[in-house]
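Per your request, structure below.
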C-alpha cells in the first residue's frame, strides 16, 4: 500500500489536524491516521467524504489526475 500524500497535503494546507478531519468524518483520529499513512485501506465512503471536504475528485486524491476539479453530479441512469 502507498501513502496518500494528497490527503495529508490537503489537510495540512487547511491547517487542520488529523483529529479535526476525523471528527468531520465521524471516525477516530487513530483510524484517520491509519488511512493517511496507508496502514489501512480507506473505505470508499470515507474516501468520497474526504474528497467532498476538500472539494476535489477522488481521482485527484488517488493521484490518478492532477486536475483538482470535481466531476459534475448527474442523474443516475434509469
Amino acid at each position: 500500500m502507498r501513502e496518500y500524500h494528497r490527503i495529508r497535503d490537503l489537510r495540512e494546507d487547511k491547517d487542520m489536524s488529523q483529529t479535526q478531519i476525523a471528527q468531520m468524518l465521524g471516525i477516530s483520529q487513530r483510524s484517520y491516521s491509519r488511512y493517511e499513512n496507508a496502514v489501512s485501506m480507506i473505505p470508499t465512503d470515507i474516501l468520497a467524504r474526504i474528497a467532498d471536504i476538500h472539494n476535489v475528485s477522488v481521482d485527484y486524491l488517488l493521484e490518478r489526475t492532477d486536475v483538482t476539479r470535481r466531476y459534475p453530479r448527474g442523474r443516475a441512469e434509469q
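The longest helix spans residues 44-54.

Regards,
D.
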